[in-house]
C-alpha cells in the first residue's frame, strides 16, 4: 500500500500521465488530434484540482524566509537557459518517438482560448506538479524512502542521476529533458527550496509557449 505522504505527490503526476495515455489510445482508435484538443483543459483542471485539494500536505511549498530577488533572478536565468537548450537540442538522435504536438488553429485561425489554457497549464500547473514529483519526491525517495527527512543538499549523485535520467525519458526531446532535469535538480539541491526549480520550470514553459505561438512551431507542444 502506498504511503499517503507519497501518494499526495504521485497522484497529480499519475493523473497527468493517465490523460497522456488516454490521448494516445484515442488517437490509435481513430480519433483526430484536433478532436482531442480540449482534453488538455480537462487534464490541467484535474491536476490543478488534486494539487489544490492536497495543498496542506506540501510542506516543501512553504515560501522560504528572506527569499527575494536571488530566487527570482536565478529562476529567470535558468529558465531561459533551459528554453534555449530545448529548442536547439532537436537533432534526430536527440529525439525519441514521434511527438503529436498541439495545434490550436481552426482553418488557419488560432483559437486563443486553447492557447491561453495551454500556456496557463504549462506555466502554472505543470511546474508545480512535476517538481513535486520528480525533484521533491522521487529524487529524495531514491536517496531514502522517508524522503521528507532528506535535506535536498544531501542528495547523492546516484539519486540525482536516476531522477534526471527518468525525467529525460519522459520527454520525446530526451537530451533537452536530461539537460532540464540536471538544471532543475541542481537548483533544488543548491538552494534547498523547491520554489527555485518550480519558478525556473515555469519560466521555461511560459517562454516556450510564447515562442511556439509566435513562430508556429506547434510540434514543440
TrEMBL record:
GO molecular function, one term: endopeptidase activity
Occurrences of domain CAAX prenyl protease 2/Lysostaphin resistance protein A-like (ranges): 115-207
Keywords annotated in UniProt: Membrane, Transmembrane, Transmembrane helix
A GO biological process held by the record: CAAX-box protein maturation
Family annotation (Pfam families): Rce1-like
InterPro entries: Prenyl_protease-related, Rce1/LyrA-like_dom
TM ranges: 6-26, 38-57, 69-89, 110-129, 159-187, 194-214
Protein name: CAAX prenyl protease 2/Lysostaphin resistance protein A-like domain-containing protein
Species name: Nitrosomonas oligotropha
Top-level taxonomy: Bacteria, Pseudomonadati, Pseudomonadota, Betaproteobacteria, Nitrosomonadales
